[in-house]
Amino acid sequence: MKKIGRGIGLSFYGTGYGNGFPDVSKARVRLLEGGKVGIYVGGTEVGQGAKTVLTQIGAETLKMPVEDIVFVHEDTVHMPDAGTAAASRQTYNTGNAIRVACENFRNKLKELAREHLALNSIYGLKVENGKIYLDFFPQKSLSFEELFEKSSKGDIEAEGEFVAQTVMMEEETGQGAPYWPYTFNACGVELEVDTLTGLVEIRKAVFAQDVGRAINPHLVEGQMDGGFAMALGYVLFEDLNLKEGKINNNKFSKYLIPTAMDTLEIEKIIVEDPESTAPYGAKGIGEPTMIPVGPAILNAIYDAIGVRITELPVTPERLVKAIQEHEKEKGEVK
Amino acid sequence: MKKISLNVNGKDHILEVEEDMRLIDLLREKLGLTGVKEGCSEGECGACTVIMDGEVVNSCLVMAFQAEGSSILTIEGLGDEENIHPIQQAFIDVGAVQCGYCTPGMILAAKALLDKNPNPTEEEIREAISGNLCRCTGYNKIVQAIDRAKEVLR
Amino acid sequence: MKLEVVGKNILRIDALSKVTGRALYPEDFYMEGMVYGKTLRSKVPHAYIKVDTSRAEKIDGVIKIFTHKDVPNNKHGVVFKDHEVFCSEKVRRIGDPIAFVVAKDRKTCELALENILVEYEEIEGVFDPIEAMKDDAPKVHGDSNIVYHFKIRKGDVEEGFKNSHVIVENTYKTHMVDHAFLQPEAGLSFIDEEGRITVIVATQYPHYDREEIASALKIAEDKVRLINANIGGAFGGREDISLQIHLALAAHELKMPVKVVYSREESFLAHSKRHPLIMKYKTGADKDGKLLALEAEIIGDTGAYASWATNVLRKSGVHATGPYFIPNVKVDSYAVYTNNPYAGAMRGFGATQVPIAHEQQMDMLAEKLGMDPITIRLKNMFKKGSVTATGQVLTESVPLQECLERVVEKMDFPVGEKEAY
To answer: Which of C152, C204, C420 sits opposite A84 (nearest CB)?
Structure first.
């Protein structure tokens, strides 16, 4: 018999290394030939979109197009340490370091422009679209390209650093401020359980994710789709089949991850509530996007068949067995 | 060693291959076509997908000598920066790329689908790429990209 | 604030290179004079070992076989230095690295691996974390398998349960899973034009890898260079060291480019896994559905090595309440060594597991109270100004209620009715 159920899951997630451990990101910004700007940072692009998002933060701070920014993050010889691409920390932590570095860079450009334009102070100078100019007398203007030519090539640079704030917890009570900031979300699913085969099919899903502010909404959606799929695999079928320390499912013909046939278009809602300590309000969402999905599925399974599943994964065999036991128990009660 | 001739991305090649060499090794190591990716070596993940005589194959499961006389398309032959293919463009525009490791195989699976069925439904698209695993995207933007490419190509 | 770039769907900067197949991942790099490396790994979960490489060394084309004797400082690890670069006396899990063969090609590497003689003196293993916590359990490292114990003590849970109208108690179990990123580990090492040991890999944290390589080889960090190629997914599985030190050691000793590409099967052995948790939950609420107390005991199996176990189980503990205000909380979370594959970071890092428990507890409490699942959450959820179980004040950006309300609206969940969903 096919039974339909619905369920919800909520979660919160503290980002960053946390617990008072120094969480430091550093970035360097340099003027390049042709008036381009290089951002040098050890933040890794693992596929999540760090390269794009961090470039956007730099471009926003310098008020210039992303095309004119060269993002260098591959080689330890050229880039300062920006911490790990983990703990959902790159957008917030390294994004902040880049914003600070770009602000310092902007001030440096103003100082240099003041000299070259023979001005008395930097007040009224604006940095925008690859040039430094006096707001109320725009004829006083110097392009990034001209400034590069006037400098001894490549020595105009600035650095920035961001150190996140957390408080180590007390050992006996756990009292402290272990993470900052926290990200929140909610996921609702509707699914169908085939009580004979134990197969679970998701029919509908709605996923609302707090992001502080979305630097790039498409990339946020990509994380939500990906997190949903990973959670689906986690709860319903991924299994190493571990026996006495041996991974028996050690290849993709045995360790099954979701395919395009297992996933579905989900309704994604991006909730914005900017965080004041974050770069343009943006919080990390890489990990959170997987978290509320699993419990929503489990609650929906209960709603469908009245059986609580307390052990993962909910494979068809385990589900059929649980249904049979439940029926037996009900029979005994009667 | 065996001598084989085949056409890859429009170019004819005559190559000496070992008996136990796989097509993926020939493409990657003899011809430098590293857009062909290896994810599982057992035909499950589809990262090594190429189009051989119009059919999608996992190049890790095809022996090099079996490609004798065939015509093969890899991602490098589909389009490049100057001459990008509409499916590639759709993947960029829709945001269907994350880590990018499944992307070449995914795009070629889409190409083979659209060559045969220019107007697939969402279900048909999902089925056509179900032999290509992706761990990042949850597939939805990939499906959307193929759907968009189909409109452009029609 | 007027924003011009932030908030825009700027096209992914690395997309063009990825759709054209030009993006290079570590296995896509080839160099003149390049040789290959392959790792010998333990076939048993717990044993003392003796290794004899002499027969393999005589094979034509074998350049060198590295073992623990060749590593100046044979230790590494993200928090505790409990991993050995190559096991010296004991293997603690199936897949532990024992030796690294460098040979002229891959086939010779395979042949050499078959000819390395490993004598395993097997010892009893422990695979269940609850068993592993007992005093008489076989010890994986040192004299206790308990790596870490995290505690939260807030209010008085006994009092909280006494005042509760409903109490729900359950034990939940999650399992060990793999990141299954699509690109198996690979890398290429060489000495660059300035004499630096250079390693091209796919890593989440290049500066950390550099630090570990420098430490293992006992050389200065500026003599080591990490180049991060394109990365075929990570999800936490590329935080610990896998092949980085092996590659660096080989290039350093041999002064020739060395390449390693893992198979999918080896990838499963090489990197960390998600911690399986056993979560014992007791949650109480008053008759209006207000949560009064939570007591949770969480036991995490970190397998043969600690990796991020302390931080993961800490994160489980801190997130054990779920996003709800609870006045009385007692949490104990433990990380425990076993002879299973080692667990480390994976997307959500201990916070992915606990909602499997707390969200089902919420639904069960609601059912007992004859309340719907949305209402009980609305009554207890974090809002701006809420205080967490660790005493942290959530001063801003807490739009959980909005998240819930928008999902409720789109799912058309009934609210305020005595039924689930």
So the answer is: C204
User: Measured between CB atoms, which of A177, A216, A278 is closest to C9?
Assistant: A216
Per the CB < 8 A criterion, the answer to whether C372 and C366 are in contact is: yes
Q: Is C109 a member of any domain?
A: yes
Chain A residue at shortest CA distance from C173: A311
Q: Which residue of B has its CA nearest to C22?
A: B35
Query: How far apart, in whole angstroms, are the C-alpha atoms of residue A214 and residue A282?
Result: 6
Q: Which residue of C has its CA nearest to A220?
A: C9
Measured from the Cβ of residue C79, the count of other Cβ atoms closer than 10 Å reads 15
Secondary structure (DSSP) of B23-39 = HHHIIIIIS--TTS--S
Q: Which two tokens stand for residue A3?
A: 């039974």
User: pLDDT by residue (tens digit) across C258-307?
Assistant: 999 999 999 999 999 999 999 999 999 999 999 999 999 999 999 999 99
| Residue of C314, C326, C296, C274 lying closest to A179 (CA atoms) | C314
Note which residues in 152-181 of chain C have CB less than 8 A from chain A: 152-154, 170-178, 180
Q: Identify whether the C-beta of residue C98 lies closer than 8 Å to the C-beta of residue C51.
A: yes
Q: Which domain holds residue C232?
A: 15-122+180-261
Neighbour-count burial for C11-45, b at 16+ CB within 10 Å, e otherwise: bbbbbbbbbbbbbebbbbbeeeebbbbbbbbbebb
Q: What is the pLDDT along chain A (334 residues), one digit of tens a residue?
A: 999 999 999 999 999 999 999 999 999 999 999 999 999 999 999 999 999 999 999 999 999 999 999 999 999 999 999 999 999 999 999 999 999 999 999 999 999 999 999 999 999 999 999 999 999 999 999 999 999 999 886 799 999 999 999 999 999 999 999 999 999 999 999 999 999 999 999 999 999 999 999 999 999 999 999 999 999 999 999 999 999 999 999 999 999 999 999 999 999 999 999 999 999 999 999 999 999 999 999 999 999 999 999 999 999 999 999 999 999 988 876 5
Using CB atoms, list chains with 3+ pairs below 8 Å to chain B. Answer: A, C
Nearest to C298 by CA among C273, C335, C327: C335
B86-153 CATH choice from 3.90.79.10, 1.10.150.120, 3.40.50.1970, 3.40.50.1980 = 1.10.150.120
How many C-beta neighbours within 10 Å does residue C178 have? 23
Cβ-defined contact of A263 to B129 (cutoff 8 Å): no
CA distance C152 to C329: 7
Cβ-based contacts of A229 with chain B (< 8 Å): 137-139
Give the separation between CA A306 and CA C363, rounded to whole angstroms: 12
The tally of domains found in chain C comes to 2
Measured in whole angstroms, the distance separating CA A193 from the mean position of its chain's CA atoms is 32
Handedness of CA C391, C392, C393, C394 (dihedral sign): negative
**Rounded to an integer, what distance in angstroms lies between the CA atom of residue A50 and that of residue C263?**
28
Enzyme catalytic residues of A: 287
C418 falls within a domain: no
* Facing residue for C233 by CB, picked from B91, B101, B107: B101
B138: chain A residues, CB-CB within 8 Å: 224-230, 258, 263, 266
> For the residues C52-63, what does the mean pLDDT come to?
98
pLDDT digits (tens, 9 = 90+) for C123-160: 999 999 999 999 999 999 999 999 999 999 999 999 99
Residues 6+ apart with CB under 8 A from C51: C67, C98, C99, C116, C117, C118, C119
